[in-house]
Amino acid sequence: MNARTQLFELSMEGRQVDEAVAGIFHSVLFHRTLGKFKYKQEGSYSVGTVGYQDVDCDFIDFTYVCCSSVHLDEILKREISGFSEALRSNDGPGSGQISLEFFQKKKNRWPFQPECIPWEVWTVRLELIKLVTEHERQICREKVGDLLTDKILYITEVMNRHDYVPKMPNQAELDLIFDTSYPDIQPYLFKLSFTTSGPSSTTMGNTMKKLIKETLSM
Amino acid sequence: MRIHVNQREQIPSRNMSNAELNMQDKKDLDKFTKFLGLKAAQIIVQSRLGQKVNTKCKPNSSGTDWFNLAIQDLPEVLTEAKKALCGETVNFRIPLCVEISLRTIEGDTMVLETWSLGVLPEQSDPEVRITYTVYNRMGILLKSLLSVTRVTPAYKLSRRQGPDSYVICYRIYMGEPQLHTLGDNYKHVRVGQVYTPVGTIQISLSYRTKMTISPTHTGRDLVMLKSDHFHSDLSPRHVRYHQSEENNTSLSDTAKVGAFAVNKKVTVNEEDLVIPDVPFSALLTPRQTSPPPIPSTEEPVIPPPSGTTAPQTDNNNGNSEKTLNGNSTPKCNSQNGSRRSSCSMMSANDDFIMVDLKTPFAGTNANSDLGTFYRECQSAPQLQAFTEERTLAEQVGDLTEQLETFETHMHHYEDVLSSLCHTENNN
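YS: structure for the whole thing
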């Protein structure tokens, strides 16, 4: 199955990385998160309510909206700061990319693990720049804010195309589609991954290419 | 809202056209569309209040929130939106518009953006399921609206509004969006759309890119408004400058009245301008005040204590409209008469509603405290010394008398002095 892929390429200062990536991924996840399902009796359920909050950035002139779920924010922050640290470390390459991948699970025969099939991947590719003066920083603050604005408009455009999303499952298969571990919300299953050296290998296509390359080199 | 879905049920293959849209679906669609409009208005206006929004997730929602989104309802906005809809059957053939504008303390206004929600009947999707798909997609559309409201230029401006610089106003109306008020080179953005059997519901936005106010009065330079923390327009100095410029009719006019003096209007005679015999006697004549800048009608509305404005969550699902109407008598409305908006198909450009804003660091009734203090100072009784006008001779006579008494009491003063010296030595 082909996953939809979206790629954002940005360049910014190291200290802006966390906020920029969080702004983009939180906006995507906000659209890809449902209220918590509560099953009443067989076959019937109610959907909880998703709360939201405004987040102001410190190093970018930018405010974004995200689900008001502490748990979700923690998970996102943890992964993003790992990426940010790797990117900004002295021996880091100064460029890299981080991906937010939505996937669904497909049950396999015992003893195999369920297969994860991605259906939408959002990638942010970043290049770090170094600025010297405060004036340059101020300009960069505004510039990155403007760039993120464009990205938000693009995200909402994609979300309102109403392309493929996995079908609503029945109760038994709910956790093949949704992450049911959150107490307050129910996002589609997602994972974050990053690399700071060359393109990410999160998509199926890339994995296949890598396999073929490795086979040939052997 | 609670959705009960029978999971075992097969998705019915519907092959219906507009005409075949069954009554229940039609009713549902109308209801959903109406609430989409009401909630969209809430999202837009609340994003321009200058405050950050934070609503809680409710995993155990008992089925009260529309579109599974915790959008709070400000009663006043709900009233305005309902007024604009005029209780008609909502099909949004005529778009519902929310106009956001900026008003400076000088009274200049500038329309910043116009949001519109309308239906394009030519694009429809007869296959789509109303209760499930359309409802969920409306939720996604509102999420997109939430995201987009935070990234337009007006958002940053609204976060920096204040009673001494400018305030953000809103107006809700039915009609084609008026784009000529947005100046040259305005931008158009489509927030998103939902396909339904009767057409495509679409939310779009047009916003100003040139942030230049053309003065409505004469002889004033253009006021540039830029998103900048340190802009001179926002500083109090600017305010003072304008004030003194406009009131600069005579010297005595510009002078402020002291705290314990009487605020009386005096017509200045030629004689008064002659240098008086008694030095500084002019200080004794009451002066005209330049009134403090507290206009009552145009001043932004200070929101009532949080207890009263706490947005009330819409606790009904649309089928009990009575409660919604009950909610729509807002407490804050009674506190200030200046809030209103038109509910007309036409537009009146100058008919704006002041948006709530909070003065930083101010308590809820800080302004009235200041006002009370000011009035008390204004109404302080005049000192007796100034009430009795006395002739120069009397005053001079007084002086000699006083000097004489002082001289006679000279030894008293010396006693006091020497006793003071003694006590100091003791220490």
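YS: worth flagging: Chain B touches chain A through 47 residues (CB under 8 Å).
IM: good catch. Also The longest helix of chain B spans residues 23-46.
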